[in-house]
């Protein structure tokens, strides 16, 4: 749970240099780059590397993967040097630990939230959890929210809230769930992977007003 500090902000699914630059100028804490095969925001390794080089050291780069072979994840690590790996699929803790990076585990809250929460002890190595609104087996980034009240009142590590957030609802979400941070993709877009400057700004301002 939050310690009362402002929620951290992660913009996810960036594909354009100008959006990365704008996000950094707005002061976000994390930039998410998607390498999952089933994503319309998927980056190739060269494009991911090029975006990564624009990000200063105080902003963390999070590489998203989903049910990919270890060699593919290792190639992302080699090419992009992410600060964090975010796993979105059915990967287990041993797999997620195997790349020499801290990892966050996305938890799909869109189907059976109780079953989703029951899976948390299976990830003792996760540095954080990211609760997302999609159902298990489905990709993220679809703007699907879940019932924020279904999250536990106490967790033993940081957690991020994701799924269907935007500048209009993020303040309420933070007030209800008190997450460590908030993650947004489609809620700041004009189209898949195309971030909108005004929506990005509105999101950051809404979080900072909480
Ligand atoms: O964004 C994608 O296309 C994606 C594809 C496959 C796995 C994960 C993906 N995104 C995960 C994210 O962290 C999104 O930011 C998160 O699902 C929130 O998305 P949105 O509901 O659109 O804000």
TrEMBL record:
One of the record's GO molecular function terms: phosphoribosylanthranilate isomerase activity
Pathway terms, separated by semicolons: Amino-acid biosynthesis; L-tryptophan biosynthesis; L-tryptophan from chorismate: step 3/5
Domain N-(5'phosphoribosyl) anthranilate isomerase (PRAI) per the UniProt entry, residue ranges: 10-205
UniProt entry keywords in alphabetical sequence: Amino-acid biosynthesis, Aromatic amino acid biosynthesis, Isomerase, Tryptophan biosynthesis
Keyword Isomerase attached: yes
Keyword Plastid: no
Similarity-based family: Belongs to the TrpF family.
Gene name, Swiss-Prot/TrEMBL: trpF
PANTHER family, per database record: N-(5'-PHOSPHORIBOSYL)ANTHRANILATE ISOMERASE
Catalysed reactions, semicolon-separated: N-(5-phospho-beta-D-ribosyl)anthranilate = 1-(2-carboxyphenylamino)-1-deoxy-D-ribulose 5-phosphate
EC number(s) recorded for this UniProt protein: 5.3.1.24
UniProt GO BP: L-tryptophan biosynthetic process
Name by which UniProt lists this protein: N-(5'-phosphoribosyl)anthranilate isomerase
Pfam families in alphabetical order: PRAI
